[in-house]
Model the fold of this input.
Amino acid sequence: MVQAVVSGVVDKLSDLLITEAVFLYGLNDQIELIKLRLHQMQCFLKDADSKQQKDERVKGWVKDIRNVAYETEDAIDTFLVETAPSQWKGVGVFMKYAQKPAELFAQHKLGEKISKIQAKLKIILEGRIIFGIDNLGEERREVVSVVRGAVNPDDDDYEIIGFKNEKRKLIDQLVASGNEQRRRVVSIVGQGGLGKTTLAQKVYNDNEIKRHFDVSIWLTISRDFKLVDILKKGLRKLGIVISKEKENDEEFLLKEMKRVLSEGRYLIVLDDVWAKNLFALFGRALPDVGNGSRVLMTSRFLAVAKQADPGSMPHELRFLNEEESLKLLLVKAFPDQYPPSICLANNDLVEVAKQLAKRCDGLPLALVVIGGLLSMKVPNYNDWNRVLQTMDWQSDGSECMQVLATSYQDLPYYLKQCFLYMACFPEDYVIHAGPLMRMWIAEGFIKPEGRWTMEDTAERYLEELTQRCMVQISERSLKYGTIERCRIHDLLRELAIKESKEENFLQLNNHRMKGQHPNTRRASHFQTDVVKFCENTNLRSLLIFDVHIASLIKFRLLCVLELKGVLCIKNLANEVTNMVHLSYLGLRRTWISSLSEKIGSLKKLQTLDIRETYVTTVPFSLWEITTLRHVHASWNRPINGPHNGSKLEHLLTLKYVKVMAWKKDFPHMKNIRKLGIRNRDNHDSKATAQLLKNLEHLCSLSVEWQILPEEIVDMRSFPSYKNIRNLGLLGEWPQSMMFNAAMIPKHVTQLVLYRTRLEQDPMPELKKLPSIKFLDLGRHAITCKKMVCSSGGFLQLQRLYVTENDSLEELNVEQGSFPFLKYLWIVACWKLRMLPELHYVTSLQKLEISVMLHEFKLRMVHPDGEDWHKIKHIPEVAYIF
Done:
């Protein structure tokens, strides 16, 4: 891990010598020497990293290197903060050489610090010989190609190894009839890593369960839960909108959930329950009306399960036997084939695999993680046996953590810091991959690699972490196939927290963990004391979740600032502009309504996220920041876009902006990939079309006009025509043009039509799009009375939304259409008389009917409803009226 720290400081020193040479005034040679010595140390750190696990002296030597690297970084970053005004305001020849007293003092302080650092480095280098640390060369960044979409024990079509019988028993308990009509709590109990959540997911997603219960929702319970938050999350999943006045009213929320659940047979999953009193509190929202409703709960603690329902015997998970353990290990080691032919032909390899499986003591998480580690190795005896030798410990009850630690130590240094960073997020938190990877980039974890963008490299890093089973995929993008959401297992998070403390990488501050080491580089705050929230001024990342803050003025060295759901301080805009190293600024769900003109002083800013804020206008100075890569604003509050001539060569994402009065001198943003434009009027369409013709790398486009311009609707002349995968067209379709699928990029996978008011049935044209997987016919997308989905159409479609189309009276689905459709939403189509013939669509997993006439629902009710035969095969049907 210290390799990553030293590598980052060496890169920073290189940049300093190039970009700030004028302001160093004679210190160049000394800084060059420090850079050289740190670079020399990199060659020895790989050997030291392996030896420090068994040698406390080497461990101390590595710690000294890390501390001096941090000291160097602090000295350089502080100097840049103190000289920033002159660097950005100075113009002309005289200003290059004239110095103000403050700058002279900053230079003097830097010189003193550098002299001390040089002396420390000399002593540290001498220690290498004493400890016998060899030069193994500098570790290169080489990301192994990963297998996307390979066989995975968590996939829906893959049976749980060793838990098939347990799954059947649990389903039988949940759907039991006869004398079991009371509300029961069925509990799965076992230690961390046994697979409680995985088993519960398999049960929850089973077709028999979906058909048996009228409504089912999944709630993950954090260790430091708040009842109000659980209730709000549950009601949202039930489709209930809560007013701002009532969203924190506990009694109201309890009554509302009880009211909604009383309408049918329900299944509530409470995952990862720690507190004995959880069910006593939350159970008040769960009615017992004798209709066979159930609660499925997972917990590490038998006492928690027994207290929730003393009359129900908890299901205690067992460990896997030797045969099951070996199978699970090999499934993960060879994700693209099972059984692996190489193992069948190599007895030595099988023997090593058996010994590795045995060391995991039948714990599924340990087996999965070690299997993921092996999947990155060449499948031969020497490489696998080397992994086995690193796991040579005495049994002391900590086998699982030892296995996880082995997998962590096997990570390349550049992946270690990416993995540890995930511990910044709260327990059981579903992490959005996009912001996570942008934080990695802002921190300098990701380096440019040839033709790849840093975002491309970050995606590959995340993919490798998932193949190594260090990170779990929660959701993949239908548009691009990339990871959209992910999470980290509790035990792996505990490992990351432990390693982070050791490395001074991260300090969490919540009810259970407080206080910081002065050298800690990152801090994450959730559920902490408002006043005593942070004292460390050397932080590079500060993540705050739903906590009120008073001031940020002292954090001048930040690269990443994430304030999610924070009640922002009044002077935030001014305080942030003093953070000259800031590269990532996340203000999502804050109450901020404006940004200071001084934001232009953030010359290193890469990401600005102001979604779900009250900001509608940004200063022009924002568009003068040439390092910008991602700017996100709310769809319903678009901001003013770049002005003429803005040089935004690195900009990749710009969503959402109002159309500007662009003339010939368009903003220079030729590399943009994702663009969202809103224009309620009808001006500047030709200029916007001309701008779009300059964007050859565009893969996601959303445009809104009152009447969609012809020159934008017909995209065949756009250089990005073959690249666009995600397209949103919002506005009335031009009357002079027939709707023609040829105008739409043929490789589009996600298409949203909103207020297009198409008079003819669009389905005959839309079925010509061969790659479409997600289709959203939103509010007033059509004005026709009938839509027909004909046979042989939509061969890739997985999700279909038909919402707020009040002219639609008839929707027909012919046999052979939608062979892979999984989700269908029909919302507020008031004139639609009945459901289409969905019994042809055997792939359908969920049907949601919302805000429709009560008569429409009656046709679907079992067993007498006229449309029941159309939907009885669908595992999950949700009614929200």
Notes: The first strand starts at residue 184 and ends at 189. DSSP finds 29 helices and 28 strands in the chain. Residues 195 and 364 are 6 Å apart (CA to CA). Confidence is low (pLDDT under 50) at residues 88-98, 147-158.
